[in-house]
Amino acid sequence: MSGASDTTTRRPELSERTLSVQDLPDNDLHSERMELSMGPQHPATHGVLQCKLVLDGEKVISLDPVVGYLHRGKEKHAEAMTYQQFFTLTDRLDYLQPLANEVGWALAVEKLAKIEVPARAQAIRTIICEFMRLSAHLVWAGIGGVDTGAVSMFMYAFRDREALFDLLDDLTGLRTNQEYLRIGGVGADLSPELVEKMKRWVADFPKHVDEFELLLTGNKIFYDRMRGVGTITAQQAIDLGVTGPCLRACGVGVDLRRARPYLIYSQLEFDVPVGTRGDAYDRYLVRIEEMRQSARILKQLLDALPAGDWIAKDWKNVLPPKGRVYTSMEEMIHQFKTVTEWCPPKGEVYVATEAANGELGYYLVSAGRSHPYRVKIRAPSFVNLQALRPMTVGGYFSDVVAVIASLHFIMGECDR
Amino acid sequence: MADAAANPPSSSNPPGVAPAAPSAAMPSAASPPAPAAPPPPPPPEPWVVAVAALGAEPQPATQDGLAVFRVERDAWPAVARALRDDAALSFEMLLDVAGIDFPKRRPRFEVVYHLWSLRHNRVARVKVGVPEEDPTCPSVVDLWGTADWHERECFDLLGVKFTGHPDLRRILMPDDYPWHPLRKDFPVEGIDNSISYVRAGGVLMTRELDVDRPAGQDRTPVDLSHGDPAGFTDKAETEGEPPKAGGNGHP
């Protein structure tokens, strides 16, 4: 534990000192109250989160999450960037799923400017959204395993994630922070060879999820660490605005891919896993099942990938492909005008997608200029993190780590 | 929440799409480009009428088709409670609170709430205007617990004070940070306050940090006199010279 254990100067009251253990209502050993600062540099807080804890022995009396250490002012920067430029910053929100953040931004801008996206581009976007969900869930599984003592889980999860990154490398040219989305489509086509490679990966993946389950699901130590820990009710979760797997673990079967469908999710078959108890173990089970469902979605998409354009041929609004910019006068002019003076109409949109951690929303206000007037990012990590307090207070100190692992937030997205 | 749990909204039940309700006080900034022959607007849905009866003024629909309402600041707590508790409305979840700065408009600030009804699968947008002279807005933490951090963020970045908030302090910026950076008169480049000095009586003194100090005070003032009649200002577009990024540029 980092941080000094600032014990308070309060001495135990005489009455407290004379109480015997049996006299205490919960039959628990009470000790001097201790304040502990956990983080912001702490391996289990998943980035730079600081938790100000007040402990009574092993019991957590209060927890105050302190965020903002990774605040980079993305919303302010957006007001000085063009719409296409802002893709670069959305990559760095939830850096485990950069392309899913880009998809949300692209959908918001396209809704604002009423740009039609071709079917193939929509399918490619859906594919990368699901790959991103897997990428984020694999890190969650690996790190969550480490946090709860199952260190070998990390090796299994990152083996698959490396193979997934190889696919993304082939598709976009980069392993992470790809900046692959374009307004109106995507930056490059998905080649038939790569589709075959992706199909092989997707066919193998459910077997690997079985391996994860062999390692963790029935593991007595893991079960005891997670079951009944960090419980919140559905009512609490809704009040706190919790979305995504953490809400579904409470028994509320709400998934934006179903509830407010975007891309081509309404044409796909998949199940929405729902928990019953709302504890850390249910959150684990929901995410594990979501990985299987993502593989199922990917199989459908890769088997029936529509032919056609991968970017809208609407060169007044969309960047033309580079090859044509270099060879055609018309496209060169369009490229120049799109980069320098493209302005969507005035208006405002709120577009939300189901990211790995919950509802990722972009509220975009346009004044009809080449820069957004205001961008508000509804980051699921920021909102879900508020549930950390009700999940941990009253529990044991060692459970804080398990709760953080099961809640899973990314501070890059939380602090923006 | 038994209903939502038992009957998850399916894709056959699309979210409520609010039709454009005619309104005299429509801000030109929010209206989409007028089509050549506008079709007559369909009658508003019953729930939109119900919200309007609470004292919320329906606004023209935007590109995303959400129902938009404008609520007077004083009426907002009562309207919010009805929005959450009325079974026909039942907006159980507060998705987002966004503050926007319109330096040329009166009132200057706008607090925008996005609400989601899980039961009816609808999203609504509610706007509350907050004047610059009295930048306060009633808190809704007692209705939606999630408003806690959202309102802290809005206070931190825009300087809107939420009355009734149990613990209103900065959340993203450092506690002693003196400005509200999402205001339009705060330069994008930021203001370097790592060394905060003022020259007083020929001596350099540490400047005391004051949360309520407007951005740019005792520094190069930022010119806001430009802008278009619609009330939007866009510094990066209209200003010849970007505002000085503080630094140690004190007199």
What does this structure look like?
The complex is a heterodimer of chains A (416) and B (251). Chain A has helices spanning 14-18, 74-78, 87-91, 98-113, 119-147, 152-172, 192-216, 220-226, 234-239, 245-248, 256-259, 280-303, 322-327, 329-341, 380-384, 388-392, 397-407, 411-415; strands at residues 5-7, 33-38, 50-56, 59-66, 181-182, 185-186, 347-355, 358-366, 374-378. Chain A is an alpha+beta fold and 416 residues long. The longest helix of chain A has 29 residues, at 119-147. The radius of gyration of chain A is 24 Å and the shape is globular. Chain B has two domains: 2-163, NADH:ubiquinone oxidoreductase Nqo5 subunit (Beta Polymerase, domain 2, 2-Layer Sandwich), CATH 3.30.460.80; 183-251, no CATH class. Chain B is 16% helix and 20% strand. Chain B has helices spanning 2-6, 46-53, 76-85, 147-158, 235-238, and strands spanning 57-59, 67-71, 93-101, 109-117, 122-130, 136-138, 161-163, 197-200, 203-206. In chain B, strand 6, helix 4 (147-158) and strand 7 form a beta-alpha-beta unit. Chain B is globular. In chain B, 37% of the residues are buried. Classes of the chains: A alpha+beta (416), B alpha/beta (251).
- Gyration radius of chain A, rounded: 24 Å
Largest sheet of chain B: 5 strands, mixed
Overall CATH architecture of the largest domain in chain A: Orthogonal Bundle
CATH topology annotation of the largest domain in chain A = Cytochrome-c3 Hydrogenase, chain B
Report the CATH superfamily of the largest domain in chain A.
Answer: Cytochrome-c3 Hydrogenase, chain B
- What's the mean pLDDT score of chain B? 70
Shape of chain A: globular
**What is the oligomeric state here?**
heterodimer
Interface with most residues: A-B, 59 and 55 residues
Helix-strand string of chain A = EHEEEHHHHHEEHHHHHHHHEEEHHHH
The name CATH uses for the topology of the largest domain in chain B is Beta Polymerase, domain 2
Termini separation of chain B comes to 60 Å
Number of domains of chain A: 2
Radius of gyration of chain B: 21 Å
